[in-house]
Amino acid sequence: MMAEGSVEILEGFLCPICKADLGTALQLHSHFQEEHTEDQDVLKSLKDLLGKAKKKILKLDEEIFSNDYDGQGTSSPSAHNPGDFEQQELGATRSYTHSFRTIRNNRLERYAAETNKLLIRLDKLLVDLPADPVKRKAHEQAIVPWIDDRDVKLCPTCAKNFHVARRKHHCRLCGAIMCHDCTQFLPLALAKKMTNPAFGHQDGGSNRSNNSASSPSSSVPSTTPNLGILRRSNSNSSLNSVLSLVDTVAGEQNFRLCIHCKQLLETREKLKESRTLKPIISQFYERLRSYQTEADQLAVMYNKMCQSLNCGESTYILNDAQVLRVKLLKLAESIDSLSNKIAILGTKDVENPPRGKTLQLQQMIRTAATSYLKEQLVAIPALPTEMQLKALQDRRRQEVSARIQQEKQLAALEAHQAEMRRKRDSPQRRAVDQVISDTGWGPEAAQMFESDEPMIQQMNIIRNYIKQAS
To answer: What is the pTM of this model?
Structure first.
């Protein structure tokens, strides 16, 4: 430590105020507490001031470091904090949307026009395509003019020289020349599907037989070359002609294309598939909904069977209910597994993980599936065991027997009461009541009671006595 006004260097456990060397940290602490108690407030305020200055300096260093360029000569905008700067006024702006759309539309139109030309030529090549190699070659040259062999010395794709072992081949769609190594092949079936999408959906029955009968190109030709065709002529290019015919016979089921035409056609097919193909999350969700629909249907049947068995009824069989329960549990496992796959879909992709609405949608699907499992499948009622089912059925039989006996007794009592009401309302009883009301009770009134049961006669007599006395 350097003292003020001198160059003397002091070392040790020095007091910051009196510059005395105390020897140890404990002695320094006790010395400061005893001798400089009144200066602690000043020292504390000084430390706070130094701490604030230190924080400000460190923050400034971080800002300077974040504004520096990295090793590749580019600045790192992620290190900037927009909150550290004041909001600036919006200056002059310019929209490049129109320019971008113009460039994009021109490029798309160029590619679309070239692809449409290739499809038109491909459709013309497929119409009345001969099976004979010589006629087929003439047919292909009539549709698409070929470039003269003498105008091309090197292969445009690989820049290699042509010779006897590396022959010249023509693209059937644009007429360009390339070598065999740079040649691409398009199967006739795929070409028909490109020009006629309904061709790929036809069955192998009568439609194919009709197509094969109508077009000679659909039939599989013989792979054995015609000896008359392969007969050598007196021209200098007879060897090339023979080799060309051999190649034609070997590739009768394909169209020979250059790499550029093949790429244009493949790009068009990929765009068609991308427009019709559903995203993987949509496919998973549709499968999840199918599982839930099936589980709802089985759950309704299972609840009905479970309620019937728990009541002791013999309408359903316990084994069928147990099989149905196992199916429901398997569906619950499938729903849980599939919803978990949807929730973690794409999260392992470090470069482009799901964010924003996509991630929120996946989490909501998982939450909805979990709630469905808790409310519909996890809380399904349990089935009784075989012993419990037998006890329930016995108790139900006893209850049914008791109810039948009670119903019989109630029916007999109702029949007896109906008979009594019928006798009370009979004309004879009304005549007796009229006599009693006119002359009073007497033997002539009692004689008017005609009944076969003595007990009923006595009851009627007593009832009339009571009525007369009141």
So the answer is: 0.41
